[in-house]
Amino acid sequence: MERVSEEKKNVSRKKRINAIRNFILIGIPVTLVFLIVVCVFLLVKVFSLQKQIDMLYTSKTGTTYQAALAEDSKNEEEAVQDELEHSVSNSAILAGSKVYLTFDDGPSENTSRILDILDQYNVKATFFVIGKTDDVSKEAYKAIVERGHTLGMHSFSHQYSNLYSSLDSFKSDFFQLQNYLYEVTGTRPIFYRFPGGSSNRVSKVDMKELINFLEEEGIEYFDWNDSSGDSTGKNYSTQQLAENVIANINTKGDTYVLMHDTTDKIRTVEALPVIIEKLLDMDLNLVAINGNSVPVHHIEANEE
Question: Which InterPro entries match (predicted)?
Answer without folding.
Answer: Glyco_hydro/deAcase_b/a-brl (IPR011330), NODB_dom (IPR002509), Polysacc_deacetylase_ArnD (IPR050248)
